[in-house]
Amino acid sequence: MRNIYPLLLCIFSFFSSFAQPYTAVSRLPLAKQHQILLQRATYAPLPQFKGTSSGPVFDTTKWQHWIDSVWGTGIPDANKLSILNTIWASIDSTYPCFVHLPMYNWDSLINAMRTEVNAGVSRGRFAAMLNHLRRYINDGHSTIYDLAVNYPSTVFPGMPLMRGESGRFGACITMLPDSTAMVYDAEPGHPFGLQPGDIVLGYNGIPWKDLVQIMLRHNLPNSVYTGSTDIATYQRMIKGVGENWYLFDTINIKKCDGTLVSFPTSYMAATRYSSMCTDQMPVPGVHKLNFTEYYYQNKSISYGLIHGTKIGYIYMMDCEDGTGNILYNAVKHLVEDSAAQSLIFDIRTNFGGSFNAYIKTFEYLTDLDNTPWVGYGERVSITDRYTMFNQPSFWYNVQDTDANSFYHPIAILVGPEAVSAGDFFQVLFRRHPWARVFGRSTAGAYGSYHPIATGQADYYASKQEVNFYDVADPTFYLSHTEYPVDQKAWLTKDSTCAGVDNVVSEAVKWINGELSVPTVSTRAVGIKVYPNPATDDVHILFSSPSSSQYTIRLCNIMGSLMVQQSASAATGKIDLHCGDLPNGTYFLTLQNSDSYRVVQKINIVH
């Protein structure tokens, strides 16, 4: 039995009575719940609340009035104040992730909100205040919203609400490095003629990144899912460009060939698309799950060999499989039945779930027993927001009872839409000696989830309950931080216009380079590495001394280079000093000038 507390990363619904045409919303990852709630919206063709269809839709001078009028007064102000106090009391007393947040004056911020509520606020304004507090906390496991305001069943022109990407726009967007919004997938016959590589510049002649700031300054209710790091949340705001067409009159687009076009946003009225937006483009030979398969048929993994290669490719959309069998069986099939020589795990979108979804696969791919990787900390006191104490990390050690191993290149593709257990995937799998991470940093939501009971219908809240750390540094908590990738890569305009996923092509290029150097056993080339375990020096003995030059690298299980040297095998023996290294498991790699590589696991015990 794996003692890793899988329920810490399972997300439980606190609105189980909410009806959906999909798999029951209850007990789904929080990020997936958010997507389902966004997707329930339909677009109405008329600005129903204005009582007239004349005049421009985009009018910031009327936003505050519309926020107050669309949803009415709502519950009594005393009840609103009670909700605010209940949510903040719960967060302030136990939330463990104030670390790495800016040093806000939290007391002043909350007191200002209390003063405003006491003076009287509408339902829309109160929802916007709660969303504003959520943005300050900026946590993928901590959410605060009014269901009717933030996730309406109908969206109409002029509605004062900022929405995140849900697939209803009919075109999928990603953020380029200059904060522009690029289409990488689009439904056939889209009303705006969108195609992969097109840039959605903005609306009404104003760049979208500027409009985002305008909406934030005007404190519109905000349904953009927070990502736990500033960049992850900001990317979600940029990706929401298409979903927010109803706030504007004209959309501005730059086509792949540089042509500038504009269309009335009214073309979108009464449309209803269901696009599966995942920051991924099609990979030849590998099926990518569509909206129906994922949300209706409850499929989360698809896989295959990249066409014309022996590279196994796995899309993993969430980590809900508590048995771990789905991913394990997919990888086992690729390795044993399809003879894959390398693997790519694509989790650029992963809604989270449980560690158990991939522990069994990690054991299959490695022979690392009792592997430490993470632990978690909690608040010391309800009055001290920053001092933490750690629980034992050995609770999460991976106990490898699987005799198999796969010492071949493994690429892991990540991005800001990988959240919770999706965040943790790379933390564990980069302990494989031949793993490399490509993409952008994940969402940064390294923790668990706990609901906050508000006592009022339609008002929902949650908070992160613990804060995890990598055992490489138990004093550095991971939430709100960008876990580093080995090679930064993302979709580019040129590659997308050409129909190429640049992240995949970079990973394939690395894999092909690694496979060009064959890996052989020590026995096959007459090399002996001893003693193992070692206490001081490790000796590398060559049965046939030669003039070959070797590059020798010793890495720990986190992939950090600990020792590197070059030496000749002319004497028949090379000594590697390891007496200063801490106890643990290491990987010794020898690569010679005759273009072959030897990899040997070494244990150091002093």
Written overview of the protein:
The protein is α/β, with parallel strands linked by helices and 606 residues long. Mean pLDDT is 90; it is low at 1-24. The chain folds into 3 domains: 41-74 and 122-268, Pdz3 Domain, CATH 2.30.42; 291-515, Alpha-Beta Complex (2-enoyl-CoA Hydratase, Chain A, domain 1); 519-604, Immunoglobulin-like. Strands 5, 6, 7, 8, 10 and 11 form a 6-stranded antiparallel β-sheet that branches. The longest helix has 18 residues, at 77-94.
Could you provide a short overview of the structure?
This protein has 606 residues and is of the alpha/beta class. A hairpin with a 4-residue loop joins β27 (549-556) and β28 (561-568). The protein is globular and about 90 Å long.
Q: Note poorly predicted spans.
A: 1-24
Describe the largest sheet. 6 strands, antiparallel
The total count of strands amounts to 31
Tally the structural domains.
Answer: 3
**Structural class by helix and strand composition:** alpha/beta
* CATH class assignment of the largest domain: Alpha Beta
Based on CA atoms alone, the radius of gyration comes out at 26 Å
Shape: globular
Q: CATH fold name of the largest domain, please?
A: 2-enoyl-CoA Hydratase, Chain A, domain 1
Beta fraction: 15-25%
Helical coverage, percent range = 10-25%
The CATH architecture classification of the largest domain is Alpha-Beta Complex
Mean pLDDT: 90
Throw out a few tags for this protein.
alpha/beta, Pdz3 Domain, 2-enoyl-CoA Hydratase, Chain A, domain 1, Immunoglobulin-like, 3 domains, 14 helices, 24% strand, globular
